[in-house]
């Protein structure tokens, strides 16, 4: 399976080194840019955490939005769906979780990022927190099914990256999801 | 970034009778409908206000062109009058009479109470007249404007503003704020900015600022998703959340230098940053292992502490103007509802009980009200309730409306509204009488945050 590259720099680096190193290089690049204030003017931060190299290299939804990634191929993982203002996993949500856990079980090297998403209704800040809970709920259920927590990270995009933008129940239900993105095999 | 404005404002109240307007103001403040005002003095017969919204009657005001002298930059002088008219219309208090109806030539008629032909303003229905002159010396201009009560020929005050001709719009905003002050005793809110999130000019969602002359500036270039801008009390810096580093990180942005810095970037959610009224501390919602709680951050000391530690979602913190209490949104009752507590985390009180989704609370700068977005019949509407307790009142009814933010004078709320396709910014007065659309076009505009007055 391909490793997705974030930037032109990443692609150039990719030709020069092994796949496993790309992720680390991407991370280093990002940190370097940020610190040097090259593309982004930035002062001294505090309470900083850095994302892992795997997270920086993943083809997550934000990359598709930013145009620097590729759409994850095929959809081996199923999106996990939720009710409005809920992070509860119902029967069909658990079916998706089981499907996803089975893929993890048969691909022991696989790591994933679990993205929590919401529909457009309600406070965007509340939805960011709700997306975090949804991602967490899926992660915990996967742990319950035997997947090691070390193979999963979570991120919330709240209502910021909808799959569709109509004002309809169908569209909203598609947007209330957890989307799994392969980090590294 | 913003131009450094060096408008020299020298409020010079004119001596004169303020009787008519002051009386008007007292009644407006008391919440008495403007129809009562019709009986005030001799102006009764001249009122031609139109009924808009819930029985609101607008004060007919005439704003003729400025009388020019010296080397006046004509377009700046015109801009001043256009912006002033626009603000007064936006106020929901005035109706600007169509300039085509004005009888006197602004360049040949007088500008003082003894030289103005008030009968010519009375006959077209004006209750208030804004009359002034502009003197120019090349790149600079000085504007002197007075507000007159047409019925009793008196001036309620005047103001002299000078600065670069390129700052005509800001001078006009200040004049508009002053006209509202003559009427109500409290300056208007138009010399301010609204920060908001928009995808205008492309695909990314960046922070922009809106001025009431319609100017929109892009102030971030994160080429990603940004969220939830919120002003520093100086109106010269903003907090916002950005996904630039693939995870929602809280940034502060200095608008004077254009530099931004990461303020909180713990893995997970960092959102809803809000400066305390004195600018020294920041409230934010922050995630720890999937659970989001309200935290207080002291940027100078580099300290952060949790104010809530509940298993439910706690977000949307907003300061009371005294800096001691706060409101926030929590799902601890099972649905998102609004709570109040001390910034120390004590004395918790639930404020909303109707409906299954009330969030985004904001405390008015005068301390009297709390506004929020509440869901009813599948849509969100802006509500206000007294901070001291009492039932919420719904202000909006069209479309779905979220993200309320108070004007600096506590008279208005701006918010985002989805009516067709994308969201736009709107404003409404706190009585819910006059709703105005602020932004248009095809872009998606959301999360407005209204600054304090710029001066």
Shape call of chain B: elongated
Radius of gyration of chain A: 17 Å
CATH class of the largest domain in chain B: Mainly Beta
Counting copies of identical and different chains, the oligomeric state is: heterodimer
Mean pLDDT of chain B: 87
Strand content of chain B: 35-45%
Unreliable stretches of chain A (pLDDT < 50, length at least 5) are 1-46, 70-75
What Rg of chain B do the Cα atoms give?
23 Å
CATH architecture of the largest domain in chain B: 6 Propeller
CATH topology of the largest domain in chain A: 60s Ribosomal Protein L30, Chain: A
Top keywords for this entry?
heterodimer, A: 185 residues, alpha+beta, 60s Ribosomal Protein L30, Chain: A, 2 domains, four-stranded mixed β-sheet, 7 helices, 13% strand, disordered N terminus, B: 455 residues, mainly beta, Rossmann fold, Neuraminidase, seven-stranded mixed β-sheet, four-stranded antiparallel β-sheet
Task: Provide a concise account of the structure shown.
The complex is a heterodimer of chains A (185) and B (455). Chain A has 185 residues and is α+β, with helices and mostly antiparallel strands.
Topology:
The complex is a heterodimer of chains A (185) and B (455).
Chain A: H1 8-16, H2 19-36, H3 53-57, H4 61-66, E1 80-81, H5 91-106, E2 111-117, H6 124-144, E3 152-158, H7 169-175, E4 177-184
Parallel strand pairs in A: 2-3
Antiparallel strand pairs in A: 1-4, 2-4
Helix pairs in contact in A: 1-2
Chain B: E1 8-11, H1 19-29, H2 34-37, E2 51-52, E3 56-57, E4 59-62, E5 67-71, H3 74-90, E6 94-96, H4 118-122, E7 128-137, E8 140-149, E9 154-164, H5 168-184, E10 193-198, E11 206-211, E12 216-218, E13 226-231, E14 237-242, E15 249-254, E16 260-264, E17 270-275, E18 282-288, E19 291-298, E20 303-306, E21 314-319, E22 325-330, E23 337-342, E24 349-350, E25 358-363, E26 369-376, E27 379-386, E28 393-394, E29 400-406, E30 412-420, E31 422-429, E32 435-437, E33 445-450
Parallel strand pairs in B: 4-6, 4-7, 5-7
Antiparallel strand pairs in B: 1-9, 2-3, 7-8, 8-9, 10-11, 10-33, 11-12, 13-14, 14-15, 15-16, 17-18, 18-19, 19-20, 21-22, 22-23, 23-24, 25-26, 26-27, 27-28, 29-30, 30-31, 31-32
Helix pairs in contact in B: 3-5
């Amino acid at each position: 399976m391909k490793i997705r590259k974030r930037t032109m720099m990443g692609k150039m680096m990719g030709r020069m080194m092994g796949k496993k190193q790309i992720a680390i290089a991407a991370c280093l690049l990002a940190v370097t840019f940020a610190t040097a204030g090259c593309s982004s003017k930035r002062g001294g931060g505090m309470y900083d955490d850095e994302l892992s190299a795997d997270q920086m290299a993943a083809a997550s939804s934000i990359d598709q939005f930013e145009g620097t990634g590729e759409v994850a191929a095929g959809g081996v993982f199923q999106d996990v769906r939720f009710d409005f203002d809920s992070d509860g996993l119902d029967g069909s949500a658990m079916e998706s979780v089981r499907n996803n856990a089975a893929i993890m079980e048969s691909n022991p090297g696989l790591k994933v990022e679990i993205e929590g998403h919401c529909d457009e209704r309600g406070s965007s800040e509340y939805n960011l927190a709700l997306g975090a809970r949804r991602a967490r709920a899926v992660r915990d259920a996967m742990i319950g099914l035997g997947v090691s927590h070390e193979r999963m990270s979570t991120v919330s995009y709240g209502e910021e990256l909808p799959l569709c933008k109509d004002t309809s129940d169908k569209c909203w239900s598609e947007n209330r999801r957890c989307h799994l993105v392969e980090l590294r095999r | 970034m913003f131009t450094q404005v060096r408008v020299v404002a020298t409020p010079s109240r004119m001596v004169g009778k303020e009787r008519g307007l002051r009386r008007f103001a007292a009644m407006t403040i008391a919440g008495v409908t403007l129809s009562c005002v019709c009986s005030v003095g001799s102006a009764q017969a001249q009122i031609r206000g139109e009924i808009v919204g819930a029985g609101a009657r607008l004060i007919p005001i005439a704003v003729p062109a400025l009388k020019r002298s010296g080397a006046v930059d004509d377009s700046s002088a015109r801009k001043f009058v256009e912006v002033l008219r626009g603000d007064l219309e936006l106020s929901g208090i005035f109706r600007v009479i169509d300039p085509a109806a004005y009888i006197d030539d602004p360049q040949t008629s007088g500008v003082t109470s003894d030289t103005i032909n008030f009968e010519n303003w009375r006959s077209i229905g004006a209750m208030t007249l804004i009359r002034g002159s502009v003197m120019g010396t090349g790149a600079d201009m000085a504007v002197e404007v007075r507000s007159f009560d047409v019925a009793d020929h008196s001036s309620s005050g005047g103001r002299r503003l000078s600065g670069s001709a390129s700052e005509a719009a800001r001078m006009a905003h200040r004049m508009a704020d002053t006209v509202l002050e003559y009427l109500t005793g409290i300056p208007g809110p138009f010399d301010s900015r609204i920060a908001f999130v928009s995808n205008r000019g492309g695909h990314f969602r960046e922070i922009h600022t809106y001025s009431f002359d319609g100017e929109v500036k892009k102030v971030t270039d994160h080429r990603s998703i940004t969220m939830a801008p919120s002003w520093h009390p100086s109106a010269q810096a903003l907090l916002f959340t950005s996904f630039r580093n693939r995870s929602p990180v809280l940034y502060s942005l200095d608008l004077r230098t254009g530099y931004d810095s990461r303020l909180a970037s713990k893995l997970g959610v960092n959102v809803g940053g809000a400066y305390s009224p004195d600018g020294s501390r920041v409230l934010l919602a922050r995630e720890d292992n999937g659970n989001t709680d309200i935290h207080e951050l002291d940027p100078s000391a580099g300290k952060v502490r949790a104010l809530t530690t509940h298993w439910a979602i706690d977000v949307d913190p907003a300061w009371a103007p005294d800096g001691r209490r706060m409101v926030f949104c929590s799902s601890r009752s099972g649905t998102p509802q609004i709570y109040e507590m001390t910034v120390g985390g004590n004395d918790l009180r639930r404020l909303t009980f109707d409906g299954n989704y009330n969030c985004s609370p904001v405390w008015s700068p005068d301390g009297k009200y709390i506004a929020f977005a509440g869901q009813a019949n599948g849509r969100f509407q802006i509500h206000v309730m007294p901070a001291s307790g009492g039932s919420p009142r719904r202000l909006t009814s069209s479309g779905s409306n979220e993200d309320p933010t108070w004007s600096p004078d506590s008279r208005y709320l701006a918010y985002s509204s989805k009516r067709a396709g994308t969201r736009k910014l709107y404003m409404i007065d706190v009585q819910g009488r006059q709703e105005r659309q602020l932004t248009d076009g095809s872009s998606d505009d959301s999360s407005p945050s209204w600054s304090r007055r710029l001066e």
